[in-house]
Specification:
Layout (H helix, E strand, L loop, with lengths): L1 E8 L2 E9 L9 E10 L2 H8 L15 E9 L11 E4 L30 E5 L3 E3 L6 H4 L2 H14 L9 E5 L3 H12 L3 E6 L2 H9 L4 E4 L6 H8 L5 E6 L3 H10 E9 L14 H5 L3 E4 L5 H14 L5 E5 L4 H9 L6 E4 L1
Parallel strand pairs: 8-9, 8-11, 9-10, 11-12, 12-13, 14-15
Antiparallel strand pairs: 1-2, 3-4, 3-6, 3-15, 4-5, 5-7
Helix pairs in contact: 3-4, 6-7
Length: 338
């Protein structure tokens, strides 16, 4: 079979190199999945650059997200049948319950092999069924970005619903999924971007209000105005230190900020955290989610017939071009390899 490896280079970012390899034999409890599609996340750029806080082995098969078909079943596996459509979980061993730091040792595409191969071998417990109404390309976008957005709004604390207002920063994978989930749940959504074209697309997807943060640098004040000086109930914070201050200004008393991304870097914010205290706000770190969350999210997606937004599709042999597309930050939604 063919597979990609993320291989380090002296003094430069790692390269995505295509290799031929013999398929690994199955151990008891394992399943072989013939992969049909894959999608990229910002984390994959961090892995390539060596900046990921989660570290990783080298060389490693990259990418955490994909979807495929069960083609071989190992001894003692009863949960799966040949021909079933599945997607792998981001954290291979986080099945349910509270997160444990031990799960970092099996984060696909980082500390263990990912999915950018013609076939993968996975423990049976690390797979979920793909909703029937989704194509392989659509299903491949779910394991990281969609589940992160779902965890942030529907699993941690009080679920978002009618009467709530959600602020989504940008139009990357997590933010667009957050927009779709919040809209389906009946919440009002405010979304920011530096591109009017992207904002128009967000409006077509259901955004109630949009803000061009390049034209309106003090976008937190605009959020405050749009919410009649109340603020939003939830912030999908993908920027990190560079935007956290404005997110704290934007959130309502008793609301929450889901800290997800590090688009502006890893350093601590140069801003006072006192607004979190005086407004009784929860600042919650969100790093993907468990298999049980994934299964609940899929049921919600099926109920509301949510279709992931696909920005572009590259062939398996063009995987490096997909990285270039994602790095250029011109995408809306997900960049896919299929």
């Amino acid at each position: 079979m063919k597979r990609y490896l993320l291989e380090a280079r002296e003094g430069a970012p790692s390269e995505i190199i295509l290799h031929e390899a013999e398929p690994s034999p199955l151990a008891p409890g394992e399943v072989r999945v013939r992969m049909e599609a894959y999608s990229l996340n910002y984390r994959d750029l961090l892995m390539q650059s060596g900046l990921s806080a989660s570290g990783g082995s080298d060389p490693v098969i990259p990418l955490s997200d994909g979807a495929g078909v069960v083609e071989e079943i190992g001894e003692s596996v009863t949960a799966w049948r040949i021909g079933e459509r599945v997607a792998p979980t981001f954290f291979r061993d986080w099945e349910s319950g509270r997160f444990d730091m031990a799960y970092h040792s099996a984060a696909r595409g980082g500390s263990c092999d990912g999915v950018l191969a013609e076939s993968i071998v996975a423990p049976a417990h690390s797979l979920v069924r793909v909703p029937d109404y989704l194509s392989a390309v659509e299903a491949a976008t779910l394991p990281c970005a969609a589940l992160t957005a779902w965890h942030a709004m529907m699993e941690r604390g009080r679920p978002i619903g009618s009467g709530d207002t959600v602020l989504c920063l940008g139009t990357g994978g997590v933010s667009i999924f957050a927009l779709q989930i919040a809209t389906a749940a009946g919440a009002r959504v405010i979304l920011t971007s530096s591109s009017d074209e992207k904002l128009e697309l967000a409006q077509r997807l259901g955004a109630d209000e949009t803000i061009n943060y390049r034209e309106t640098p003090e976008w937190d004040r605009e959020v405050y105005r749009l919410t009649e000086k109340r603020g939003v109930d939830a912030v999908i914070e993908v920027g990190g230190p560079g935007t956290l201050g404005k997110s704290m200004n934007s959130v309502a008393a008793g609301g929450f900020i889901s800290l997800i991304g590090v688009l502006t870097g890893f350093e601590a914010p140069d801003t006072s955290l006192f607004p979190l205290v005086k407004k009784n706000v929860d600042l919650q770190g969100i790093y993907v989610g468990s298999r049980a969350m994934f299964e609940r999210m899929n049921r919600f997606f099926e109920e509301h017939r949510i279709h992931p937004v696909i920005d572009s599709i590259f062939s398996f042999g063009q995987a490096s071009d997909a990285y270039v597309r994602l790095k250029g930050a011109g995408h809306v939604g997900k960049v896919v390899v299929a």
